[in-house]
Each structure stands twice: as structure tokens, then as C-alpha cells.
Amino acid sequence: MSETELVRLKPRRIRVVCWSAAVALVVVFGAVATSLSGPTGNGYGTFQRGDQLAMVGLGVFGALGFLLFTRPRVEADAHGVRVRNVISSYQLPWEVIRGVRFDRGAPWASLELHDDDLLPLIALQAADKESAVEGVRALRRLHEAHKSRLAERADR
Length: 156
Prior knowledge:
transmembrane helix, four-stranded antiparallel sheet, 2 domains, 156 residues
């Protein structure tokens, strides 16, 4: 592992699913918006342009909600790991990380920290199969390289 190697990981399959769902949601809400015209069911009111725009707006906001799930990323280098999950972000040096876990049956990998916490790596999802396994292996190589550098410094 070189000192300048940078590992960038992001989910693959969930990105396709979320973008497809977002586009479908906007199309469905757009179709509903175009059908909103004339009187309401019981005749007490009428649908107007604002109602149509509100339906399109709801579709766009729903689509943006789906696209939040495309946000997860992991970047790692010789100094540490930067994790961006759906809502939260973390930047951790290798010194606080005990190991990289990807347990059988787990939906995603996680970082095991020295204080016995687990930090989920949502960017490394089991649904991505081999690419997720390769990502975990790359993170483990960087972690091992950091541990070997620490051991070399201790021997001096």
C-alpha cells in the first residue's frame, strides 16, 4: 500500500434503484397533476393550477427523499477514513479503528472502533456482492498498512 493510495467506495445497486424510483415518482405525480382538473368529487370545489403544482412539488420532494439513499460514500487513505451515510458523516483516523467487519448476513459492512462501537458503512452493501467485498478488502489492506507502520515506529 502506498502512502498516497485513496480508496473511494459508493453503493452501486441502490443508486440504480433510487434513481429509477425517483424518476417514476415524478412521472406518476406529474400524471396525477394533469388529471386534477374540474370540480372535486362532491362538487363543492374545483381543482386549480395551484393543486396541480402542489402535486408536482410533492413528487419532486418524494424523489429527493429517495435520492438521499444515494448519498453514502466511504473514502480512505493512509491517514484515516471518511464515512458519509444517509444523514451523518464521520472522519476517523486509523488509530481509533480496531477492524473492518462484514458479517455474514449483515446488510452492510461496519467499522469496529476501539471503544466497542460499530460504525455502519452503508456504502458497502451486501447487495453489491463482489464490489462490496473488494471494498472491504481494500479498507482492510489500508488498515493493515497503518498497523505495520505503527509497529515499525515502535521498533525504532
